[in-house]
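Render this sequence as a predicted structure.
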Amino acid sequence: MDVKDFYYHLPEELIAQNPADKRDCSRLLVTDKNTGRFEDRHFYDIIDYLNEGDCLVLNNTKVISARLYGKKAGTGAACEVLLLRQRGLNKWECLVRPGKKLRVGAKIEFEGVCAEITDTLDDGEREITFDYDGDFYSLLDKIGNIPLPPYITKSTADKSRYQTVYAKTEGSAAAPTAGLHFTDELLEKIRAKGVKIAFVTLHIGIGTFRPVKVDKVEDHVMHSEWYSISKESAELINSVKQSGKRVVAVGTTSVRVLESASDEKGLLKEKEGDTAIFIYPPYKFKVVDALITNFHLPESTLIMLVSSLAGRENILRAYNHAVEERYRFFSFGDAMLIL
């Protein structure tokens, strides 16, 4: 399958630079994966499509202040570090800039905190060892910045808007953006309708967003990301599946957890570890029945994933409709519900 089969034209002005004024007032494109029909709604209408006994699965990862600006010790040259994944108590897998001048042994100073590059990893990434006192995440809040995606260049949004209202487990370099549309009030209404809610964790790293640079989809290799599903969540989701109700994943990251942690019969158990699962057509889903997601970049692994669930032609038709109707795209943009 060719990567170009997942291309669509997106005018640059439709890339959202800021979120909607209210989280749940984003627009919602509802797409039927069986008929290909779609309708235009608002996100607060999501409750109309959720039934008693269904299970909504949310990724409770919390975005950390992972972008650090510092100076190279000895020269004072400016440098930038993006934390991707924790590899030990004080060791992190990172992207660095400028890469050619930040080799093993180089030291970087961040507002009184010192770090040293201790290894070179695949694809030019680095391992960095930090020397610090106290709680590292509290330290990051003081010296780091929330790492917005590169296509968001003019945002004036408060950094809390790049965090879900249910974010809990620190460690992500990016937000699970489908969840940004939920408010506490909307979640309470969903619970009151009898919809069950389960939480999983996947810390988003570079793998989700790394561009596909090969011509054939099958040749692309995903980077691994850490995930976890508790015994409580696994048992809840299993009971929903066995009752014949639907598992509705919120975001592609929740999909990747569920499909990684299940056995061939679609049953889950308590589990944690790394996943490099790459979902593209004609993947057969074992757990996920429906999906709430944002609109994704052309030729990305994420548009391939949603095409696996809804069908490539259905997705491209829906995306072209969204462009015509001036939906807002990507992280701060509008949402899609695939039923």
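Summary. The mean pLDDT is 95. The longest helix spans residues 312-324.
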